[in-house]
Amino acid sequence: MSVVAYAPASTANVSVGFDVLGAALAPLDGSLLGDRVLVENASGDFYLTNAGPYAHKLPDDYTQNIVYDCWLSYEKALDKKGLARKPLTMTLEKNLPVGSGLGSSATSIVAAFVALNAFYDNAMSEHELMLLMGELEGRISGSVHYDNVAPCHLGGMQLVLDEAGVVSQTLPSFEEWYWVVCYPGIAVSTSAAREILPAQYRRQDCLEYGRRLAGFVHASHTGQEQVAAAMLKDVIAEPYRAQLIPGFKEVREHAAAMGALATGISGSGPTVFTVMKDLHQAEKLKAWLADHFIQNQDGFCHICKLDAEGARVTGTKL
């Protein structure tokens, strides 16, 4: 038996929701912007193989790979349920660059758990899987954060609650929005992006953060597109992280001149996102970004809609 699972890239924070808002991304051209994981029967010991365009960025020792930790965690969860283990091997197809701000670690984690769960005939519930995903993501970032793994797993725009037994809930999204996401080809570590943030915030910044997040959530539920777009301003992270991303200010200014509804930093960067309503303008912005923001051959730009499906089993072969 073999099974392959795909998990989409995601943009966390979405400017207005630091650590509590995230959205899954699906390129319009149909390409898979995310990682895939293959789980298959084995006759011997466990082994993990890497493949894909960014496999060379992963540790040579597979026991240092987060997917290996996913396997250990899943096997431990099986033991708690009194379920038998199966001999297996895994392959991670790494399609997202590490440190890109597109939920690279989350895509590996989510794809691994979804593939393992399918291999074991859905031994874990969706909620149990989400808790495992959050735990593994926390090992990388230093604390549990669901703003990447929740949209990556469940799809759409996710608001992280993590209360009353509910990890996250789906927000209504605006179908006519195009999300132009551009990775310049450089890396910004999540730890470095967090270290640059202040230890304390002014009261007025905290109040503005709460006002904008509440306004965005309400506008999303009531279909107030202009209000929702106006709320997409980051007062928590962007004022500090923008300096880590060469050319970010120019991207914002150029996108605004082209009619963008909003521009922000995806996750901890360096990927940026721009929300637009006109596809022709989105295509023009994509071309401009390729010429003025992408810095090397590793960079890329996609025009996306939100991926409503999230992680899914796609077949039996990579």
From TrEMBL:
PROSITE patterns tied to this protein: GHMP_KINASES_ATP
Sequence ranges assigned to domain GHMP kinase N-terminal in this UniProt record: 65-156
Pfam families named among the record's database cross-references: GHMP_kinases_C, GHMP_kinases_N
Entry EC number(s): 2.7.1.39
Residue span(s) of domain GHMP kinase C-terminal: 237-293
One GO cellular component, as annotated: cytoplasm
Molecular-function GO terms, alphabetical: ATP binding; homoserine kinase activity
Reaction(s) the record says it catalyses: L-homoserine + ATP = O-phospho-L-homoserine + ADP + H(+)
Pathway: Amino-acid biosynthesis; L-threonine biosynthesis; L-threonine from L-aspartate: step 4/5
UniProt KW keywords: Amino-acid biosynthesis, ATP-binding, Cytoplasm, Kinase, Nucleotide-binding, Threonine biosynthesis, Transferase
Enzyme class: transferase
One Gene Ontology biological process: threonine biosynthetic process
Function: Catalyzes the ATP-dependent phosphorylation of L-homoserine to L-homoserine phosphate.
HAMAP family: Homoser_kinase
Family: Belongs to the GHMP kinase family. Homoserine kinase subfamily.
Protein name: Homoserine kinase
Organism, as annotated: Oceanimonas doudoroffii
Gene label: thrB
